[in-house]
Write a structure and sequence with these properties.
Structural class: mainly alpha
Number of domains: 1
Radius of gyration: 19 Å
Order of helices and strands: HH
Oligomer: single chain
Helix content: over 70%
Length: 73
Amino acid sequence: MRKDDLAIEFQKIDEEVVLLDRLIMIKTQRSLDSIELRAAAFSITSIYNGLEKMVVSNILRKFSVHQSVTLLL
């Protein structure tokens, strides 16, 4: 996993949080449907889960490479 990949994922999370904040503000003003709020929250959760999988995958890959090198020595 590259730093660029993480930066992109964090940028997506930031954008979704801003959107969610806007929707919450609109909801208080105009009684926005909670379905839209849940959709925004689900989107943030999906991005976070993708980011988490990337990080875990990277850690496991590094661990398996380290373990393979150790076994060879």
